[in-house]
Amino acid sequence: MKALSINGMRVALASAVVALLAACTSAPVQTYPDVTWRHLDPIVFAAGPIEKVAAYPAGGDNNLEAYLPFSLGKMAMNWPDDRIQTAGTSDILRYSVTEASITSNALKTTKGFSGVFTDDQSEKVEMKVSAKLEVLDPNGTQKGEVAATAVRTRTLAESMSVAEREKAVYDETATLLMDLDRELERQINANFGRFLLR
Question: Pairing between strand 84-86 and 121-136?
């Protein structure tokens, strides 16, 4: 029996990859629950209504947001619904998400024959979310502001399936949003004491 040439191996591998991609595209899309903070104690403000502003720009060419079955930006916008309660004074709270991005960059992997037997980290995913909370008087004049940013990175192995990659990015996104919550709460306690009811 004639040994398979390098070119023959490449053709066989390419065929296997095409079959795998076809199987992935026909698989049902996994759904993921929104990250919530309902299990945490609310932060109670002596203020009136809460305005929410989605101020984050659309991502660039390497932004994964459009391809994932969940949205970092939309989940970050839900934060005040779970964490803030108001006592109904004339002051206004304005919560803005100013950045929400999940970007992907390819990493160098082993080429040639050795690459067939090497499971490299092939992709680096970077996640960043920023938000600010303002206290405004009834005329819209700012009385105070706090801001928070959370950043995380995760590398993905080239052997991971599409579903495994999505799950890994979702898990990291959930951790990122918890980081944002902790930093916002820290900033609020440090700088907004005069507006809080405890």
Answer: unpaired
Residues in Cβ contact with 131 at an 8 Å cutoff, skipping those fewer than 6 apart:
76, 79, 95, 96, 97, 98, 147, 148, 180, 184
pLDDT digits 0-9 by tens, 107-143: 876 676 565 556 567 889 999 999 999 999 999 999 9
Q: What is the spatial distance between Cα 64 and Cα 105, in angstroms, rounded to a whole number?
A: 10
φ/ψ of residue 52, rounded to 5: -120, 135
From CA 127, how far away is CA 149, in angstroms rounded?
Answer: 11
Q: Return d(Cα 198, Cα 195) in angstroms, integer.
A: 10
Name the residue among 109, 137, 127, 119 with its Cα closest to residue 170: 127
Rounded average pLDDT over 39-49? 94
Q: Measured between alpha carbons, how far is 172 from 153 in angstroms, rounded to an integer? A: 8
Q: Which tens digit of pLDDT belongs to each residue from 163-188?
A: 999 999 999 999 999 999 999 999 99
55 — phi, psi (to 5°)? Answer: -105, 10
